[in-house]
Amino acid sequence: MEGRAGASLESIETERIFGKIPVREQDDLTEERSEPQKSPKRSIKGFARYFYDRFIRLHGSPEQIAWGAAVGFFVAMTPTMGIQTLLAVPIAALFKINKVAAAATVWLTNPVTAPFIYGFNYILGAKLLGYPSKAVFFSNPSWETFWHWGGHVLLSLIVGGIPTGIIAGVAGYFLTLRLVRTAREKARRLIRKKRGDRQLG
Prior knowledge:
By secondary structure, the chain is mostly helical. It is 72% helix and 0% strand. The chain has helices at residues 2-5, 9-17, 23-30, 44-56, 62-76, 84-94, 99-105, 114-129, 136-139, 143-200.
């Protein structure tokens, strides 16, 4: 406890904000009480804000969180909806990056966005492979047509999902890195301000 008490108040407060110090030690070291968690508002904007606040407070360095998000965004582009989390989390664990960030960002593909994402990936993949991009199965529905074109559709989704996954992963990495770093720097500035107010008081 003495070693931890010797750390600067700023570093202690920063760790406290992002949940790295047990609650009992937080009260001992900062003599402040953490504010109660607020429930997400019943609106898309409120939920997005709640999700953002929880996301930037994940444990780990900004780089670990950003890499976790990158893995999640990449997996989200693959035709694996339903088992995406089961793929993203082990990959994140293997590379020792943030598993929660990976699990959260796979939800970029969800029942609402999947038709648009998979539709784009299918068209892109079909063009890259030289397949017809229109839905042949619906023009001649039969088991024979399904077995003939089903493999083409899946392969088109995979091939189309690779480049979009790379783009989404790279963009997600840098966006997440910037968001987390900005949020933590803002927290540090707030801590410095509180320290200054205490000294003046």
